[in-house]
Specification:
The chain is an alpha+beta fold. It contains three helices and 19 strands. Strands 6-5-4-3-2-1-11-10-9-8-7 form an eleven-stranded antiparallel beta sheet, sandwiched between helices. The protein has a six-stranded antiparallel beta sheet with strand order 13-14-15-18-17-16, with helices on one face. A hairpin with a 2-residue loop joins β7 and β8. The chain starts with a helix and ends in a 5-residue tail after the last strand.
Length: 317
Amino acid sequence: MKQFWCAVSLMAGSLLYSSVAPAQTTSGALLQQMEQASQSLNYELAYINVSRLGIESLRYRHAVIDDKVFAQLLQMDGPRREIIQRGNDISYFEPGLEPFTLAGSHIIDSLPSVVNADFQKLTDSYDFIAVGRTRIADQMCEVIRIVARDGTRYSYIVWMDSETKLPLRVDLLDRDGETLEQYRVVSFAVDEGVRNLMQGLEKASLPPSLSVPAMEKVTLNWKPDWLPGGMKQISQSRRTIPSLNKPVESRLYSDGLFSFSINISPADKSSSAQLLRTGRRTVQTVVRDNAEITVVGELPPSTTKRIADSIDFGTKR
């Protein structure tokens, strides 16, 4: 009898895996198609971003001309704020500031990070769950939820146009299921007319590129003993902040969807534990071993606290 129930358990487990694994694979493939469509199609989106800070209305145009990406992000209300991409140059036009250009592969401002994520690299850390189909902006959409397997990050729900595979709605949810931010397309077009509109950027005069100082190679005598699954270090640095007149050491991490930094400086009389959360962004400060440890990033407060508490200063500090 015992052998019979063991066999039943094994069979049930294999059936569960066979039903879940293909769903994960299919949803991941759809998300990868969304990323490819966002980078390869000629299209225009009119959308709103809703957060606890308010509502902003924007227009995004994207075109590929002679294998070169051209894009424009325009703030539709209030002072004119515009970002233009031509190839690997991203130019910013802000009221009251001199226009400038930075190197980059895509515009990241006011667009959900899922638009440009490489989902093949996220499969070890996230589950992609098919929720069903519904209408958004008068289009049938596939609905997919993106959830971190270790439960240490926020989650996304993506509504993807079934035909073009473009994202028409993206909700960022906290761990209680409350919406932190929402990206929602009001109208969109996918046609060669967008490409014709963007051709004028080929010969447009763009502002000069800012020279970014080369990153100094530094050795830091501390490290976190715990990180959310899939997080990798992107960079590290040491600098002095004039207003504080003390050195700050930093490490930057990302998993391809969310990012955060760990910043450590000597503690002083004004140092104290603090927690500030605004939408997706958390600033968590703890004071330990004569050091002020601040974690800043797109993570829940409990996760930033766990990271800060795990810092190992080694034997040199």
